[in-house]
Amino acid sequence: MSGLSFELLEKLCRVHAPSGNESAMTRFILNHVRRQSPSWKTPPVVHHGSGFQDSLALAFGHPATAIIAHIDTTGFTARYGNQLVPVGGPVLRPGIRLSGRDTGGRIRCALQADKDNTLFGLYDREIAPGTDLVFDSPFIETGSWIQGPYLDNRLGVWVALKTCETLENGLVLFSCYEEHGGGSAGHLARFAHEEYGISRFIVCDITWVTEGVRPGKGVAVSLRDRHIPRKRFVDSVRKVLEEHRVPYQPEVEGSGGSDGSEIQRLPLPLDWCFVGAPEQNVHSPEEKVHTRDIRSMLRAYRVLMKHL
Fold it and tell me: What domain range includes position 11?
């Protein structure tokens, strides 16, 4: 993986797709698959459209394990008089630059709060109610770091798509609504189980840097967050990574969640494990990930999908 390019990741980070409005990202992924899949090791069967809303699935060969990566982001919804309501849990720092589009055209404004801590967008006209806005910050690649808005979870989508290039057998799922809730992951997991008999899921998402998970030390493998995956399955994930010398860090948290939460709630015998790079400045315009952890994450997925 020497000379790994992040051009695709930068393009992914530019796509406007907050929770509830993921269709632009769905189109981006479908176009990428149409252009690039002829050069992939195995051509996928693409499931999307009717019955999937804006989520989609790529089936390779005879899949036994699924990757699931959410395609939505945090953001804001315009209310009345340019009031803003958060989508998910974005950082609420006055002065943050936001962008979007309504019937009046392109919008670029700044996040502000009044004395009552009511959020609003500072703009020279009223933003149409219902318009969604996202962070408007640059993608920066400097030395050993990648920085920009929405590495959570554009980086997970990037890893999933890069894994597709060499995948022989597996199912790759792209879910919606992870940041704000909505059941898309549960629907996809049920589809995977009923259509392909899959009971093993790896959650391809981004976690946070903590006192026990440090930048540059490898991808994080979550032993638990708010929910608890089955230890036997998590142990099998760790064993494969150790056998193939993929650097990783065990993560233990008592809060937070992912698409694994939706999978665990299903009344089905499904296993899941979160495997993702740690980032700093979570849910801010300056999310930051060490390139060593990105490489570790990509290698982890390629190894797991082949040997798990």
Answer: 7-73+140-307
